[in-house]
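Hi support team,

I've been running sequence recovery on a batch of backbones for a student project. Most finish fine, but this one hangs at about 90% for roughly twenty minutes before it completes. I'm not sure whether the input is malformed or the queue is just slow. I've pasted the structure tokens below so you can try to reproduce it. Let me know if you need the job ID as well.

Thanks,
M.K.
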């Protein structure tokens, strides 16, 4: 192990690493760890603190996302007893209920049935129609704070855009958007490393409140259908002879509402920070629609909002590099590290919106590939280009700090001035 005062230690010989994800120095800059892994040639390594293998190489992460021998769910092929899992915690019943039919927790054929039903609303040609609405919303928000000369950007700009847009798509009234953000933020605590019991209780209460609210809205839509995704989910023709149950509709709506803003908020914050720190001229970065798209892609690569997802081995698997994973074991996919892999990207640690090799794994790959990627890209393109065009003197007003949630790599707040 190396003995420097770093928040991690890596042994290239054994391909084992230790790094405490909740240590300030670590989660403020996980890229130092990733660089050291890449320098040690550790495209896969055993992360002691998590107790499982992780993949850090681009090729490896991308391949595993598509590998059918792995899944996001395991209970369809093994029992809790076989896995040595304790019984579900009663104080997490409501949270578990929201997750039960989440697309992210399903595997085919149930996954295919649910995803097919919502997919159409999110394909590029449909979300492209939202572009003018997104641009108008971004400008409306900037109108609201332009005169002040300074603002906390996450709350005033980054959060409302995706929250309002996904709420409008689903059919949740706009004035509920920030309540959705509050529920979602509380639920997301469940994905923290070493989650506390207090956080579990809060997440459960938020889940119960969220579900109650949606059940009320569903009852309204049954009485009075509208042109929104909630009505569509309730009334869509059956797929494979099955209509969606109310529980499935509730789970799917919660997933879309949560996933629909959480990562986009953080990508916006990370992107503004990256651009301001780079010293590059925003005028050039957003000069044309093509360059805007490339800049957004590079922001997604350079400082991804989601750093680790896991998969279960659905059978015993031998991976390249002599890694044996037994059925039921977990493997970590390090998106933030894969996006900085020097074997895949030239000058991987340099923010370069002019690069042509920017295609990254920030939205995942394979059957769970982010359904909202086309929407998120449009939101980021419109919001960032409007922001830098309207406020050309934009600068950081305080050093930004990342939240203590390693998997969700986003800022606590982003104070800017102009
Ligand atoms: C920059 C913003 C976003 C990022 C970086 C992001 C990233 C991701 C990633 C990495 C996954 C795959 C997780 C896995 O395979 O384990 C995913 C799945 C998903 N995302 Fe996003 N996402 C973003 C925005 C959105 C938006 C705007 C929506 C709104 C609809 C959304 C909805 C979903 C859904 C429903 C899934 C699950 C898909 C499935 O399991 O089939 N995401 N996202």
């Amino acid at each position: 192990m190396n003995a420097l005062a770093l928040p991690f230690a890596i042994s290239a010989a054994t391909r084992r690493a230790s790094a405490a994800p909740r240590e300030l120095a670590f989660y403020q800059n996980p890229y130092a760890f990733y660089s050291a892994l890449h320098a040690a040639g550790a495209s896969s390594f055993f992360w002691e603190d998590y107790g499982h293998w992780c993949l850090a190489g681009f090729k490896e992460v991308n391949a595993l996302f598509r590998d059918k021998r792995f899944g996001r769910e395991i209970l369809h092929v093994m029992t809790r007893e076989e896995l040595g899992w304790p019984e579900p915690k009663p104080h997490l019943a409501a949270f578990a209920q929201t997750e039960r039919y989440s697309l992210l927790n399903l595997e085919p054929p149930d996954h295919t049935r649910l995803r097919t039903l919502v997919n159409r609303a999110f394909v590029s040609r449909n979300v492209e129609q939202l572009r003018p609405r997104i641009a108008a919303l971004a400008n409306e928000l900037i109108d609201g704070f332009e005169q002040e000369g300074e603002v906390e950007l996450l709350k005033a700009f980054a959060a409302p855009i995706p929250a309002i847009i996904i709420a409008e798509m689903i059919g949740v009234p706009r004035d509920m958007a920030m309540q959705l953000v509050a529920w979602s933020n509380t639920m997301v605590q469940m994905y923290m490393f070493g989650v506390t019991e207090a956080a579990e209780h809060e997440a459960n209460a938020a889940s119960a409140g969220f579900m109650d609210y949606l059940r009320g809205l569903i009852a309204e839509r049954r009485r009075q259908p509208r042109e929104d995704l909630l009505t569509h989910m309730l009334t869509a023709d059956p797929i494979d002879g099955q209509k969606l149950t109310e529980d499935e509709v509730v789970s799917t709506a919660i997933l879309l509402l949560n996933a629909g803003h959480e990562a986009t908020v953080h990508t916006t914050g990370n992107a503004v920070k990256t651009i301001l720190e780079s010293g590059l001229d925003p005028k050039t970065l957003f000069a044309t629609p093509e360059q805007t798209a490339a800049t957004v892609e590079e922001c997604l690569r350079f400082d991804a909002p989601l750093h680790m997802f896991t998969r279960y081995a659905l059978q015993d698997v031998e991976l390249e590099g002599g890694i044996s994973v037994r059925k039921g074991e977990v493997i970590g996919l390090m998106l933030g590290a894969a996006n900085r892999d020097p074997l895949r990207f030239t000058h991987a640690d340099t923010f370069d919106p002019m690069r042509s090799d920017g295609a990254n794994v920030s939205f995942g790959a394979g059957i769970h590939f982010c359904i909202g990627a086309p929407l998120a890209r449009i939101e980021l393109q419109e919001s960032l280009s409007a922001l830098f065009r309207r406020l050309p003197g934009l600068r950081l007003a305080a050093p930004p700090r990342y939240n203590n949630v390693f998997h969700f790599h986003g800022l606590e707040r982003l104070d800017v001035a102009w």
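--
Follow-up from support: It reproduced on our side and the slowdown came from queue contention, not your input. The chain has a mean pLDDT of 93. No action needed from you.
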